[in-house]
Amino acid sequence: MTRATTAFTAALLATLAACGPGTPPKPPPPADMPDAGAVTLGDAGAPMAMTDDAGAATPPKEEGWLLLVDLEAIPPMAPVAKPDTYGKQVNSGFKTFRKTKKECTGKGDALIEVDGGYDGSFTTAKAKETLYLVNITPCDAKLPPTHNLIVTEGTKVKVNAPVPENDIISVKDLDLDGDLEIFVLNVAGPSVKARLVDTEDGKFEQLNDFGEISNGTCDAGKASGTSALVKYKKTETGVTYKVEGKPKVCTGAAAAPAK
To answer: Strands, E, within the chain: which ranges?
Structure first.
């Protein structure tokens, strides 16, 4: 051992002796960490609200519900070509179908408006069919208007069901059985009533009557009243539905935001 090593060892021993007897303190135990799947509770025992990166409270996510229809976001449909064809399939009692009231010449005339033109499977899975809603208003004011939901396959009418509704809004296979369910509206002024129907096996059937879901207007571009969101959820026993109210919104150049 060299003199330098001997001197270094002596100095180290002297330093340790100056620290006094005993063992160095143990480091403090780590703070308890919650389990990965645990829910953090507040002072009252209720789950605490989660926050986003900015620290704002985030509402709990609504599980399972899917949007069926937003009345304020309905895309426009292209006009159905040759509506007279469908008018004669529904009601052959009229001689001529007119586009406007001014064109009416007699009691044998009627106004016609055809909505829809949706292609898909309506009576059975994998069928190639088309859905229409035929609205006929007789030129004779004493006769009531009629509304018929029809399903065609080529030139054949497979379903012809009279309904009170005058507008098809959505077709979707909600229960995943291969044929499409049909969401229809009865629009009468500000009041909007809705039903969900289908034509499985060639038979018209009501699946759900929502009643009035909206009552709102756009007067001079100013919105008033209510609109609606319609949602659905697949369950073990079928499909369930709910309607959520929302403020009426006016769209277009003259529209003004609702207050």
So the answer is: 50-51, 57-58, 66-70, 96-98, 109-120, 129-138, 146-153, 156-162, 167-172, 181-188, 191-198, 205-219, 222-234, 239-247
Please report, for the chain, the start and end positions of each structural domain, with discontinuous segments joined by +: 66-213
Sequence-ordered list of residues with C-beta below 8 angstroms from that of 39, at least 6 positions apart, any chain: 47
CB atoms within 10 A of CB 211: 9
DSSP per-residue string spanning 89-121 = HH-TT-SEEESSGGG--STTEEEEEEEEEEEE-
Question: Mind listing the pLDDT tens digit for each residue in 162-218?
Answer: 999 999 999 999 999 999 999 999 999 999 999 999 999 999 999 999 999 999 998
